[in-house]
Structure formats: structure tokens, C-alpha cells
Structure prediction request, 919 residues.
Amino acid sequence: MSEANAAVVAPTTGMAAAAQDEVSAAIAALFSDYGQQYQALSAKAASFHSEFVQALTGAGNAYAQAEAANVSPLQTLQQDVLGAINSPTQLLLGRPLIGNGAAGAAGTGANGGAGGLLWGNGGAGGSGAAGQNGGAGGAAGLLGTGGVGGAGGLGANGGTGGTGGMLWGAGGAGGISGAGGTGGTGGNAVLFGNGGAGGAGLAGVSGGAGTGVSGTGGSNGGTGGNAGMLFGNGGAGGAGGQGGAGGSGIDATVAGATGGDGGNGASGGNAGAGGQGSALFGHAGATGTAGAGGQGGQGGMGGVDGGTGAGTGGNGGNGGAAGTGAAPLVGAGGQGGTGGTSTIGQGGTGGNGGVSGDGLTGAQGGTGGEGLTGGQGGTGGVAVSTTNANAVGGVGGTGGVGDTGAGGAGGTGGDAFGSGSGNATGGVGGAGGAGTNGGGAGGVGGDAFSSGTGNATGGAGGAGTSGGSTGAGGAGGTGGAGVVDGTATATALGGHGGVGGDGTTGGAGGAGGTGNNTADGTATGGVGGQGGVGSSGAGGHGGDGGAATGLGAGSVTGGNSGAGGAGATGAGDSGTGGAATSQGTGNATGGVGADGTSGGSTGTGGAGGTGGAASIQNTTSSATATGGHGGAGGSGTTGGTGGDGGAAGTLGAGNATGGAAGVGGTSSADTGGGGGTGGAATISNPASPATATATGGAGAAGGAGTTGGTGGDGGAATTAGLGAATGGAAGNGGTGTAGIGGGGGTGGIAQVTNLNALGNAAGGQGGSGGNGLVGGDAGTGGEADNAGAGLATGGLGGNGGAGSAGNGGTGGGGGLAQTAGAGNAQGGFGGNGGGGTGTGGTGGTGGNAGAFGSGNATAGNGGTGGNGTTAGANAGDGGPGGNAFVTSGTATAAGGQGGQPGTAGAGGNAGNAGNNGTP
Prediction:
């Protein structure tokens, strides 16, 4: 800079004038003066720079002198001594006597250097390049810790941790894996020390958006190192990497084309196993945490309609499975991807949830895609437990939205498997999707299986979705099965059925799931779902109860049914109770039929549900079979019919009892509902003891109405064994509030078919007629047949109903009685006629009796005629007596006596007595 200034001194400080005039001379003098001032300032700046450099140099020298003065002579001595000690071993063995080993260079995969022979830690391994494993950690000397393994390159494994000191020291941790590799194994200890932890697995890579490519799997964790022989714990296993998520599907660009499926989520990496602990003092290392599965990708969008067709959305990808690991350090499965959207077609199906690790809840299924019609939801992920942790299947995905059509169905719940002491519960079915022209159906509940000591409960069915103001409600999903297959007393329970959706017409409720038990625990079917409400039409039908089966000593019970939904034009009928089957030694009881729902002021009442059947299928079992009760009919403008009782049967040595029926519903403007029929009872085993009885279920009364409902018949009873059979009593007729009373039901038949039987056969009593403006006629008594040595007694006839503004009802005839052995036959007595303001009802006919063996036969008497209840009312005639016959010359036959007439009202005609029966 100084040289440059000197070079321009002459031209800038002594400028010549451009001309000889005064102006030019003044300008030249002015610029020359500027040059002279610049040169003066430059000289001062150069002097300042020289002084500044001199000052900095002096300060630096002073600092260096101070540092040198502060160096400890001992520090220098220490380095000199270590150098002298380490030089021979470094020269001969390539490692120091005291000191840490050198680290491997990054990107080379070089191994770490060994620590000092006497004392020192191993050096860390270098990271690997692509395709190259990480370097191993260096070994420690006599005392020290092994070096950490280097990270693996792409597709390669992490380096192994270095070995701990020969006397004391922990092994080094394994290196992290590269993508697609495995974490490095932890280093081992020798005598005293813990094993090194296994290296972690790297997470998988997700598929790209709009590619439909599946994710890559998570890498596995490395195994933990072993502890020292004398003391120490094994190293923990490395964690597995999370699986990569699937990429979303490709959107369709051609009109009417289907969008691409979303990519599947990848599986998570497996956890590394823990290292072995010391045999003397220590424990094994813990297993690492397994990686979670990746989420499935969303399906692509369907093509827009070009006049040739509707595009469908792509299906969502499935979630990835979790990596394997010991509970509770396990991974969760990936959630299923959402189905693709379609603006003119059906939405895509949601992806399935991934399988979760031991003891964790299964992943949820993906949601169905939106479209003109909604796509179906994906299936929930499977859950597994081998320990005391519970296994719960994943929830099914929700159905997709239907923009102009029906919503998509919900996905099925995930299954659950338990083999330990934890419970297994199936996943809940997904809810149906919303739709403008109908709600989506609920998904089926997941099944549950237990082969251990835990209980198994099927998943509940998903709820049907409302159809809004323009569509029908979606049906509820069926409950999942609960299955126990073991040796313990665990319980098996079927999942409850889903509720039907509301809509213009109500959706049906879902059926309950089955309960199945091969062990000695109980088995119970799931409860049926309730039907949905119909805003302008009928309500939905109630779901049936789930069936139940047992093979052991536990009781077996069918599921109760669901009630029908209310509706503007009438309630839906209730479902049937679930059947119960025992193949072991436990009792069997059919499920109860739900009561019918009211039809309100504008609709018919819903029918009550039929009771479930019960069956014993083991010939050595003394358990009881009992049919389920029928549900009562619902009230309405017309009453709903009562449900029938469930049948009961046994192949064993126990009792069988038919279920009682449900009463008919009342009517506000029409006929009352008829009562249900009692359930039949059957004993099919000829070796069944005399103490075992078959009893038919009772029939139920008819409902009241302007015309009364008819009473239900009694259930039949049949035995092939040595015991008794009794038919069920019939139901009475309902009251006729503005018309005829309902007729009574017929009594149940009773049959003993074993020639060696000692038990009696008794027919059920007939139902009485209902009261009304005109009395209802009564029902006939049940027939009785006996092939053994016991009695046969026909059922009594029911009494006629009273007529408040007309004739009384006729009495029911007595039941027929027949024997084929040594027992006597007694015909049933006829029922009495009902009183009336017109003419009293005629008495019922006595039942006939016949003896085809050595027993006597006595026919039943006729019933008494009904009274005339007002002045001028006529008396009813008595009923004729029954006839009797025998085939044995030593037996006697006696006909029944005719019934007496009723009492006439003042001024009324007297009635006639009934004729006697013939011997």
C-alpha cells in the first residue's frame, strides 16, 4: 500500500494546467492540493498500522510465555512415563499397556482399537458405508469396558460390542443397524461385569405418497451380550425398528377407472433377545422392545365419470404386523389404511389392521372410502397373548360415507387368541358408514379363542348406522364367537349383536355370537341386538340370541334375543332366543325371547321372541334341559303375538322342561295378540330313570282387545324312559272389550312310550275362554297316552268365557286318556259353560278313556252348563259324559256322567242335562 502511494506522488501533487488561462490554473492547483492531503493521511495510516501489529505481536508472545510458565512439570513427566511404559507393548502387540483404544474411522467399518493390556476401554467401531457392517468395538484389557459397535451401513448390520475387561468390566453396546440389517450383538463380559446391550434396529422406510408402494420392514434388534461368569446381568436386547408406512394409492386419471390400492404397512422389527446372566450372581437381560407395524396407505381416488362408468376408489393398504418380543416389551400392529375416495363410484375398502405383539390390542381397521356408495371398513388386527396379559382384537374400521347411496359396511373386528392366564376378547365390529339412501351395516365382531386358563369373549357386533330421513337403517353386526378349548373352568361368552340403525325403516339387530366351551367352564351365547326405529315404516327385527355349546361340566345357556324396534306402521318382531346344547354333564337352558315392542297408537305391536331350544346330548348326563321363555307380545292397534316357549330335549337321565310362552299383546282398536305355545319336552333315553320327568311348557294367555286374543296351546311332553310326562297347561283367551272373548288354548299332550315305565302321563288343562260381550269358547284338555304301568289322565277342559251382552262360551272338552299296560285310563272332565245374558254356554264333553292292556278305563264327566245371568236369559245345557272301553276281560269300563244344566235367569228356559257316556 505504501509503495502504491509513493508511485502516484508526482502525478497527483503537481498537476499541470490544461491551458494558460486563469481558470485552468486554478483547477490544477485545487486537485494538486487534494493529492497532497491524501498523501499526508496515508502516511498517518501506515504509521498506525505498524504500531497496531507491534502491539498484537507483543501480546501474543506474552500469552505464550504465560502458558509455558503454567505447564506442570508433573504433567510432562506423566506423558513421558506413559510413553516409556506403552512403547514396548505398542511396538510388539500393537496396543498400549495403559490407555483407551483408538476409535474406528467413520464410514470405513473399521474395528475399534483394543484398550490397554492392564487398564483401558476398547475403542468404538467405525460406522459402515452402504452394504458394510459397522466395525466391532475394541476389547478392553484386564480392567475396562468394551467399545461400542459401529453403526451399520445401508442393508448391513451394526457392529458387535467389544468384550469387557478380563477381570472386570462390562461388554460394549452393539451398534445400530442399517436399513434392512440387524442391530449389533452386545459385547460379553468375562468374569465380573454386565453384558452389553444389543444394538437397536433401524425404522423402515415409508412408501411414497401417490405410489401405492408398501413400506419396508423395520430392522431387528441385536442380541444382548452375556454377563461375566462370576457376577453380572445379561445385556438387554436391542429394540426392533418400526415398520414403514405404506404409500397412498395412485389417483385414477382416466374416467371410470379404479384408483390404486394403498401400499401395505411393513412389519416392525423383532426385538433382540437378552443376554445370558451370570450363573452365580445375576439375571438374564431383558428382551428388547419390538417394533410397531407401519400404517397402511390410503387408497387412490377413483376416476371421474366420463359417461362410460363410475370409478371406484382404491383399497387402503393393510397395516403391518408388529415385531416379535417378550411381553410387555412388544410392538403394536399398524392401522389399516383408509379406502380411496370416489366422486362417482364406490369408495375403496379400508385396509386391515396389523397383528400386534404379545399382550397388546390389535390395530384398528381402516375406514372405508367415501363415494356414491361407501366402501367397507377394514378388518381389525389380530391380538395374541401367551401370558397373564389380556388379548383384545382390533376394532373394525368404520364404513365409508355414501354421498348419494348407502353407507359402507363396518369392518369385522379382529380375532383374539389367548394361551396363558389372560382373557381373550374379540374386537368390536366397525360401525356402518353414514349414507343418504341407507345406513351402512355394522361389522361382525371378532372371535375370541382361549386355550389357557383365561376367559374368551367374542367381540360385539358393530352398530348399524342411521339411514337418515330418506333411507333404511343399517343392520347391526353379528357378535363374535367366544371359544374356550382347554382344561380349566374358564368361561366362553359370545359377543353381543349390534344395534340396528334408525331410518325410514329400522335396521335389524345383529345376532348374538356363539359361546363354545370344551372345558368345564360355562358357555353362554351373546345377546341379540335391538332393532332400529322406523320413522315412517316398520321397526327393525330384533337380533337372535347366540347359540351355546358345552362339552364339559359347566352349564350352557343360550343368549337372550334382542327386542324389535319401534316403528310408525308397526314395531319389529323380537328375535329368537339362542339354543343351548350340552354334550357334557352341565345343564342346558335356552335363551329368553325378548318381549315385543309397543306399536304405539298407530301400529301393530311387535311379536314376542321365541324362547331358545335346550338339548342334552350325553346319554350319561343327569343334567336338566330347560327351554327358554317366550317373550310377551307388544301392545298396539293390533296386539303382537306372544312368543312360543323353547323346546327341551335330553338323551340323558335328567329332566326336560319346555319353556313357558309369552302372553299376547293388548290391542287398542282391534284383536288382541294370541298367546304363545308352550315349549315341548322330550326324554329320548329308554334308560332314563323313573325320577326323570318331561314337562311341557305352559301356553300363554291371549291379549285383550276389541276381540280377545286366542290363548296359546300347552307344550307336549314325551318320555321314552321310566318316568312321568306332563303336558303343559294352555293359556286362557283374552278379554273382548267390545266383541267376542278369545278362545282358550288346547292343553298339551302327554305320552309315556316305554313299556316298562312306572311314571304317569297327564294331559295339560285346556285354557278358559275369554270374557267379552260374547264369551269365548274354552280349549280342550290335553290327551294322555301311557304304554307302561302308570296312569293316563286326560287334561281338564277349560271353562267357557262369560258373555256380558250375549251368550256364554262353551266349556272345553276333557282330554282323551289311553293305556296299553297295567295302568288305568281316566278321561278328562269337561269344562263348565260360561254364563251369559242370552244363553249360558254348553258344558264341555267329558273325555273318552280306553284301556288296551289290563287296566280299567273311566271316562270323564261332562261339564256343567252356564247360567243365564240376567232375567229372561236361558240356562246352558250340560255337557255329555265321555265314553270308555277296555280290551281285557277282567278290566272295567265306566262311562262319564252327563253334566248338569246351568241355572236360567228369571223367565228364562231351563237347560238340559248332558247324556251319560257308554261303558
User: Anything to note?
Assistant: The chain has four helices and 34 strands.
